[in-house]
Amino acid sequence: MAVKLGVNIDHVATVREARKTVEPEPIAAAVLAELGGADGITIHLRADRRHIKDRDLRLLRQVVKTRLNLEMAATEGMIKIALEVKPHQVTLVPEKPNEVTTEGGLDVEGNLEHIAQAVERLKRGGITVSIFVDPDPVQVKAAKEAGADFIEIHTGLYADATTEEERKAEYKKIVEAAQLAQNLGLRVNAGHGLNYRNVQPIASIPGIEELNIGHSIVARAVLVGMERAVREMKELLK
Ligand code: PXP
Question: Which residue has the least CA distance to atom 5 on ligand 1?
Fold first, then answer.
């Protein structure tokens, strides 16, 4: 069976926030992504609300017909919001205030008790829980201990590898982490930094169910849509 695609639409909200206005509308982007075949919609509600807002989360919960995956830090405030809005899935991620994007997996091993409590509360609320982890056996085992349903394996170092040797080494870690997770009874997703050139080897790893992809899809959407957008404006000027 083909691996599923979760489309991360955060960058649509980032463009909106560049002008603090109402367009582009992330809800519309989610609907179009679903029409294009997305199996799920992913958003990251950050503490600073720099792109996705609470209103986006609430509206998407009503509008998304596939599955809504909420990436969030395991903080008290975010857990309360998740339990109220009830997305289909929460993916716990680390969050630093000034990072450009999520920089790596969550240190589940180092925060086991706190993470396990968050997982338990979310699962009791009927939410499927995934934890974003590096392809590191210690973290994969800790995610199992914390009670997660899924892990999402961080593919960022594979995507950023600058030599073939480095890429192969990172790929091997991902393959092994996916295998270990399945042996432990965890379900497996993956994502970060995946694009039209590097995705296929990851999509072919046995047992990976879904890939979460954001930047490369939104970047391509801007370019493939540019010609039509300019043509439509030119028409108005005639
Ligand atoms: N998975 C997680 C946990 C993420 O934080 C992100 C970025 O928001 C993605 C996947 C998607 O990464 P990218 O935008 O590089 O495709």
Answer: 102
Task: Classify domain 4-237 at the CATH superfamily level.
Answer: Aldolase class I (3.20.20.70)
Query: Degrees (nearest 5) of the Cα angle 48, 11, 56?
Result: 60
| Cβ–ligand 1 contact at 210 (below 6 Å) | no
| Minimum-distance ligand 1 atom for the alpha carbon of 191 | 10
Domain boundaries, the chain: 4-237
State the Cα angle at 172 between 170 and 174, rounded to 5°. 75
Using CA atoms, how far apart are residues 140 and 5, in angstroms rounded to an integer?
Answer: 22
pTM over 0.85: yes
Ligand 1 atom nearest 10 alpha carbon: 8
Determine if ligand 1 sits within 6 Å of the CB of residue 10: yes
Q: Which residues of the chain have pLDDT under 70?
A: none
